[in-house]
Write a structure and sequence with these properties.
This protein is of the alpha+beta class. It has a single domain (44-182), classed as tt1808, chain A. 27% of the residues lie in helices and 30% in strands. The protein contains four helices and nine strands, in the order ββαβββαβββααβ. The strands form two sheets. Strands 3, 4, 5, 6, 7, 8 and 9 form a seven-stranded mixed β-sheet that branches. A hairpin with a 5-residue loop joins β7 (117-121) and β8 (127-130). The longest helix is centred in the first third of the chain and has 16 residues, at 24-39. The chain is globular. It starts with 9 loop residues before the first strand and ends with a strand.
Length: 183
C-alpha cells in the first residue's frame, strides 16, 4: 500500500512512456489519456500530465496536481481534472485551477470521474455539456480558442482562486493522500 491507494503494480503512462504506479485511479487517468489522443485527436506533445500547481492560502502552501493540461498554438486552452465520485463537488476547484495554471482564463475546464464528465466554460463556470463524448476534440477546441478572450487574471483574483483551490483540495483531505504535497 502507498498512501490510500492500492498499488496493483506498475504500468506505462500512455502520454509520457514513464513507468508509474498502477492504481484504480491511474487506470481511469490512462483511459482518459487514450481518449484524448486516440478519440479526440490531440498529439501527445500537446498534453502535459500531472501538472504541479502551487496553491496558497495565507502562509499555507501545497502542490495540487492537474491531471491533463492541453495547449494548442502556444496557449493552454483546456484542463482535465480527474477525481472519483461526484462531479459537481469538483466544479469549483477545477475552475480555480483554470485560473491559476496560466496567467489568463483558460477557456475550458473538464471535471471527470473516468466514467462521466462535465465540460465547464472557464470564464462563467457554466456546464457546457456532459459526458466523456462531450469533451472537445482538437478541432473543436481550436474553434473555442478563436472566440476565447484569454482574459488576464489579476493578482487579487489569483490569490482568491488559490485560496479556494487550497480549501477544496487540501483542507480536510486525507492525511495519507499522496497525490497532493503540503509544503
Amino acid at each position: 500500500m502507498n498512501g490510500h491507494h492500492l498499488i496493483l503494480g506498475e504500468l506505462v503512462d500512455f502520454i509520457t512512456g514513464e513507468a508509474i504506479s498502477d492504481t484504480h485511479d491511474e487506470r481511469h487517468r490512462q483511459s482518459l489519456a487514450r481518449l484524448l489522443v486516440n478519440g479526440k485527436g490531440f498529439d501527445r506533445n500537446e498534453i502535459q500530465t500531472r501538472f504541479e500547481l502551487l496553491t496558497r492560502a495565507g502562509v499555507n502552501r501545497a502542490i495540487v496536481p492537474v491531471d491533463f493540461v492541453i495547449s494548442l498554438s502556444g496557449r493552454v486552452c483546456m484542463i482535465v481534472k480527474y477525481g472519483p465520485g461526484s462531479l459537481v463537488t469538483r466544479h469549483r476547484s477545477a475552475l480555480a485551477a483554470s485560473r491559476l495554471v496560466a496567467d489568463y482564463q483558460i477557456p475550458v475546464a473538464v471535471v471527470t470521474n473516468g466514467e462521466q464528465a462535465d465540460v465547464l466554460e472557464g470564464p462563467t463556470g457554466e456546464v457546457m455539456r456532459r459526458g466523456l463524448e462531450a469533451i472537445p476534440d482538437r478541432v473543436e477546441l481550436l474553434r473555442v480558442m478563436a472566440d476565447a478572450a484569454f482574459k488576464p487574471i489579476t493578482k487579487k483574483r489569483a490569490e482568491m482562486e488559490s485560496r479556494i483551490l487550497y480549501c477544496f483540495e487540501i483542507d480536510g483531505s486525507c492525511p495519507c493522500d499522496d497525490t497532493i504535497c503540503r509544503l
